[in-house]
Amino acid sequence: MNLLGWLSNPIGSALGAIGSGLIKVFGNSVLSPILKSSENGQNAQRDVAVQVVQAEIAANQAKAAIAPAFKGLIYGIGIPPAVHFGAICLSKTFALGWPIEPLPTEYVAIEATILTAFFVSSPLTTLARAGAARLLKA
């Protein structure tokens, strides 16, 4: 069997014999540094991967902590224009006679943008995301 191994792969068998001979002569002094550097490289890769995961966890925790305050800020910005616009519509449509002051002209475009963002763009974005998710599932 050993002769067959030499005949089928003479270069590999020769190099294997030389390598095993060197290890027998020099002992662990040759093999130990090679194994140690390989182990250090694997440990360094593991440490980097652990640090990346820890950073992602910290970022997600920060997002979760900020989210309620941000949601309150968004509602605080969006609700007053919606109430104002709704009161104007109700008063004009049903002739309620409410004394609602019109916005100054420079604020009309801002109110329109806020209302569009909250009541048109946001629902359409949600629908588009749901549709895309459904298409990706199929």
**What is the gyration radius calculated from CA atoms?**
36 Å
Instruction: Outline the biggest β-sheet.
Output: none
- Rounded mean pLDDT score: 78
Oligomer: single chain
Low-confidence stretches: none
Query: What structural class is derived from the secondary structure elements?
Result: mainly alpha
Question: How much helical structure, as a percent, in the residues?
Answer: over 70%
Helices, by number, come to: 4
C-alpha end-to-end distance: 57 Å
* Estimated share of beta-strand residues: under 5%
Total beta strands: 0
Q: What is the string of SSEs from the N terminus onward?
A: HHHH
Q: State the shape.
A: rod-shaped
Any chance you could write out the topology, listing elements then pairs?
Layout: H1 2-8, H2 10-26, H3 28-93, H4 105-137
Description:
The protein has helices at residues 2-8, 10-26, 28-93, 105-137. The protein starts with a helix and ends with a helix. The chain is built from four helices and no strands. Helix 1 (2-8) packs across helix 2, helix 2 (10-26) crosses helix 3 and helix 3 packs across helix 4. The model has no long low-confidence stretch (mean pLDDT 78). With 138 residues, it is an all-alpha fold.
